[in-house]
Design goal:
This protein is α+β, with helices and mostly antiparallel strands. The chain has 2 domains: 4-133, MutM-like, N-terminal (N-terminal domain of MutM-like DNA repair proteins), CATH 3.20.190.10; 145-268, Helicase, Ruva Protein, domain 3, CATH 1.10.8. 25% of the residues lie in helices and 23% in strands. It is built from 6 helices and 11 strands. It has helices spanning 4-18, 39-46, 145-152, 159-164, 174-184, 197-216, and strands at residues 23-28, 34-36, 51-57, 60-65, 69-74, 79-84, 94-100, 105-110, 116-121, 257-261, 264-268. It has a 5-stranded mixed β-sheet, with helices on one face. The protein has a 4-stranded antiparallel β-sheet with strand order 1-7-8-6, with helices on one face. It has a two-stranded antiparallel sheet with strand order 10-11. Bound molecules: zinc ion (ZN).
Length: 274
């Protein structure tokens, strides 16, 4: 599933090609992916709007449009948002195609069809769907060690589950949670409230490192993820624990374990992570 680094990469790769482009028309092949408004209103409202800027909040990509509208996209499991030429063959599972005034097309492709699009007014952004409950952005300079300490304080749930809770911190999913806990040397099963300040500081640093590394490597492409130009990322080549169950730990050589925490598969080294 695309996490913060993947959505950020999609945003960054699309931005130079979309700014000040006008949406000439939209073709909806599968109306079910549009949550609000109804598909006809969606089409009418978005046509002729100009893309002013692109943003991201957690795992949501946000297109700021003219006349105060915002197109919000959540890629969920297998969503892809790519810019193509109008001649490119339509891939199976293409649900929405936005044709821009230079004839290039922004295509929403999603095999599992869990991804969602929303069109709202700018002032409704903070109250829409999952956006209204999102926790702070982990790469925001305003997010400090003390904020992570507050999040962990009093929470008896495993730290892995706390990291995945979008209402506590936005944008972290299964891959980066495992990676940052390994980098921090913290056992994912530990109650969040049991982490010492020293461990919280290490986790804070590891959070920034793993997310920034993911962005630098244009995201992790294990299954469907591609960036806005349709290219795979390379961060999968740098993962230390995720997807490496039974392989030797890169630090100590012991086999890595895979267990379930809160229903999610979790990869870690029981020797290095205390
Ligand atoms: Zn180890």
């Amino acid at each position: 599933m695309p996490e913060l680094p993947e959505v950020e990469t999609v945003k960054r790769t699309l931005t130079p090609y979309l700014i000040n482009k006008r949406i000439a028309r939209v073709k909806i092949y599968h109306p079910g992916v549009i949550t609000i408004p109804d598909p006809d209103t969606f089409s009418n409202l978005i046509t002729e709007k100009i893309i002013k800027s692109l943003g991201r909040r957690g795992k949501y990509i946000i297109f700021h449009l003219s006349e105060g509208y915002c197109l919000i996209g959540h890629l969920r499991m297998t969503g892809q948002l790519t810019l193509t030429s109008p001649d490119a063959p339509l891939l199976p599972h293409t649900h929405v195609v936005f044709t821009l005034d230079n004839d290039s097309q922004l295509r929403w492709v999603d095999t599992r069809r869990f991804g969602r699009l929303y069109l709202v007014k700018e002032e409704e952004l903070s109250t829409t769907a999952g956006l209204k409950k999102l926790g702070p952005e982990p790469l925001d300079p305003a997010f400090k060690v003390k904020d992570l300490a507050n999040i962990c304080s009093g929470r008896k749930k495993p730290i892995k589950q706390v990291l995945l809770d979008q209402t506590l911190i936005a944008g972290i999913g299964n891959i980066y949670a495992d990676e940052m806990l390994f980098l921090a040397g913290v056992d994912p099963r530990r109650a969040a409230s049991s982490l010492t300040l020293e461990e919280i500081k290490r986790l804070y640093e590891a959070m920034k490192t793993s997310l920034e590394q993911g962005i630098k490597n244009n995201g992790t492409s294990i299954r469907d993820y591609v960036d806005g130009s349709g290219k795979r990322g390379s961060n999968q080549d740098f993962l230390k624990v995720y997807g490496r169950a039974n392989k030797p730990c890169l630090f100590c050589g012991e086999p890595l374990l895979r267990i379930k925490i809160g229903g999610r598969s979790t990869h870690f080294c029981s020797h290095c992570q205390k």
